[in-house]
Amino acid sequence: MNRSLSPFTATALTLGFAFLYLPILLLVIYSFNESRLVTVWGGWSTRWYGEVLQNQAILDAAWVTVRVAAASATVATVLGTLAALVLVRAGRFPGRMLFSGMVYAPLVMPEVITGLSLLLLFVAMDFARGFWTVTLAHITFSMCFVAVVVQSRLVSFDRSLEEAAMDLGCPPWRTFFEITLPVILPAVVSGWLLAFTLSLDDLVIASFTTGPGATTLPMRIYSQVRLGVTPEINAISTILIALVTLGVIAASITTKRQEQRREADMRAAVAREAAQA
User: Fold this and answer.
1) Are 166 and 152 a contacting pair, CB within 8 Å?
2) Which residue from 143, 92, 94, 86 is spatially nearest to 114, judged by alpha carbons?
3) pTM given for the model
4) For a tag site, which of 73, 169, 245, 254 has the least CB within 10 Å?
5) pLDDT (tens digit, 9 = 90+) per residue, 30-41?
């Protein structure tokens, strides 16, 4: 059955995608502008990428951002997965409503409120602000996104696989690492990538919780944009877009291959059962 798009639907999709991606495309194009004035085209050049690689302040901010994102995404993935397991597997227990509310609260909490509350907490604890305070803050607000992604996968998980493994003498911890975790691994990886991306993009919470020597790349870009947009900002933004795009493509390919391998294993198992029958 041929389902072609109507002219209205095609026009709406075109305008929607243009609204979303045309500014990004213009940013990428003007990152190769020879002129220092971003509104005046002076020809193609890669000079601003060289300028970025020689800008030590931007390089330091980028390194801090990557370290914070990697550390916070890893811890948030572990905690978010454990929270999802509790919400799906633990059933009804005293304090479940409070626990689920605390897990999901950062989803609806304004970032300004989250950043301010964390700032007051660190000040009350006399905790010197810097790399670790930013990392803890990013763990706090990104863990809930991981929990939502992993929980959606656990809801449709076939518990009979775990039961069969334990009936054969596999202990619970080994069942989790050899049966449960491989099945939910695409959701766990997706949660990690989401937490990593949210940390890379965060400006508000990091502004409240940062300290000396812990300036992130979004904060550095924002401070420079306030003085005017320069081609260097376009160049570093293009590099970030390229890195995120490569990460999304790699994750998509990995997930697709895992699904194909799982389908192949299921077909092989069905074929073996049919042959034995």
Assistant:
1) no
2) 143
3) 0.80
4) 169
5) 888 888 777 777
